[in-house]
Amino acid sequence: MSTNNYLFAGFGGQGILFAGKLLAYKGLIDEKQVSWLPSYGPEMRGGTASCSVIVSDTPVGSPIVSNPDTLIVMNLPSLDRYEDAVVPGGTIFMDSTLIERPVKRDDVTVYAVPATRLASENGIPTLANMILMGKVLSVMGEYPSDSVEAALGKVISARHADKLDINRRALQLGAEY
Amino acid sequence: MANKVLMKGNEAIAEAAIIAGCRHYFGYPITPQTEIAAYMAKKMPKIGGTFLQAESEIAAINMVYGVASTGHRVMTSSSSPGISLKSEGLSYLAGADMPAFVVNVQRGGPGLGGIQPSQADYFQSTRGGGHGDYHMIVLAPASVEEMAALTVKGFELADEYRMTSMILADGTIGQMMEPVDLDGLKVNPAPEKPWATVGTDCKRFHNITNSLSLVPTELEQQNFDRYKKYDVIKEKEVMYEEYMMDDAEICIVAFGIASRVSKNAINEARKKGIKVGLIRPITLWPFPEKVLHDTVGKCHTYISVEMSMGQMIEDVKLSTECRGKYVLCNRAGGMIPSPEQVLAAIEEANKGGAK
């Protein structure tokens, strides 16, 4: 029986909420209990965005993740704000293009992926979030997997089906990094 | 599992309302419930329904009154300041005994307040909100699944008792996504409504829906009759959940998102051997008085966990005749209590023990 608490954070517009949704849908498809809770506020593009995702074998109590076991951060203010909140032994995934400082904690595992640079070099500048997610999923041992593929089909609506391939490519880039 | 989809609480309300047969939505946007209006704007035109963004909340609630008079299932939704504006209409709906479904996804107040989640409209909704002697049936969902299920229930109760039912949610449940099985929702068809103002076909005397009644003896009788109906509702429609109450000596009372935070704290406290449980009112009016009263003598302390300055705690005291110790564990203004805060309150109560 396990409960995994994820916190995603970054700038608005980076696809933080979208990345969280992918993980929540994957959990649903894996027949886990899941919740997805966005921060909401009078914010605009360039402001801060975060979301709590819980994937559990048992019913989810509070959907608010204050102390994540996995933190996925895409900008420096988010690392500054949430680094200390990660539980000892937890994991931090970060976009090292936009976060130039190392993680200070020595009791967590860190995966630094230059997601924004990779995205830009590969002509998919808006998909740094999915590159980072590729790393998250591969570390989880869940990439490639049927449930990730099925979750992609859920979070990318039929109207945007033409975007499926570049999202798959972004996940692949991150997984292989 | 195959039929479960991830949905925001607000969207689940909108879709469940459509499933319940609601084809008329009137509203005015306000955070954190605007997804309801957005969903209706998208869906209603495709299924022959009405979505209308009114010029104000007051206009919207009076449009609800109009449709309710015709017997069709109708709703509006808003958040705290908007519900205050609708309160005149809620009173008129009560005076005319019209069935309506209203959603309040609460935010911090008073005044325009903020946009973060709150439960500070407890008094307003459980005591009526507008002027005069009346109640609304108040439903408090704690999950997205319940947002959908209680929406259907809300329409059914409104029709059955010819009164307003209200979902009292908060920004967290409105904004969060959880799995929901909409195909599993069962809807009872609307009952016959011989009172509806739908034309007489020259076959009967015309119906009138009105809340004006100038003869005091008649108005008094209407109030008496309405309160007889309320007694039936108190007898038949109370809903609540009990969690680990079997051997509980400390009773947490919490609804909505506060109840979920409380469950986390209870699980931790149980690991430490503290006998604590939760009574979660699902109907805030009628309040689960009896189940609370039954705990008198078994529980020495009641902890009311609320996102307000302490409103429901009064009903907890009334239901248990002030025969325990009472602790308010709260945050306000858009803040949510943490499991640690609730656990600390439990441990403190446990130290105190019985009187």
Word description of this protein:
The complex is a heterodimer of chains A (177) and B (355). Chain A is α/β, with parallel strands linked by helices and 177 residues long. Chain A has one domain: Pyruvate-ferredoxin oxidoreductase, PFOR, domain III (Pyruvate-ferredoxin Oxidoreductase, domain 3, 3-Layer(aba) Sandwich), CATH 3.40.920.10. Chain A contains six helices and six strands, in the order βαβββαββαααα. A six-stranded mixed beta sheet of chain A has the order 2-3-1-4-5-6, with helices on both faces. In chain A, α3 crosses α4. The longest helix of chain A has 14 residues. Chain B has 355 residues and is of the alpha/beta class. Chain B folds into two domains: 232 residues, Rossmann fold, CATH 3.40.50.970; 112 residues, Rossmann fold. Helices cover 40% and strands 19% of the residues of chain B. The model of chain B has no long low-confidence stretch (mean pLDDT 96).
In short:
With 177 residues, chain A is of the alpha/beta class.
**Lateral strand order in the biggest sheet of chain B:** 3-2-4-5-7-6-12
Name the overall outline of chain A.
Answer: globular
- Kindly report the greatest chain-chain contact and the residue count on each side: A-B, 21 and 23 residues
Fraction of residues in H or I helices of chain A? 25-40%
Helical content class of chain B: 40-55%
CATH class of chain A: Alpha Beta
Quickly count the domains of chain B. 2
Give the strand line-up of the largest sheet of chain A.
2-3-1-4-5-6
Round the Cα radius of gyration of chain A to an integer and report it. 15 Å
Structural class of chain B: alpha/beta
Mind telling me the CATH superfamily name of chain A?
A: Pyruvate-ferredoxin oxidoreductase, PFOR, domain III
CATH superfamily of the largest domain in chain B: Thiamin diphosphate (ThDP)-binding fold, Pyr/PP domains
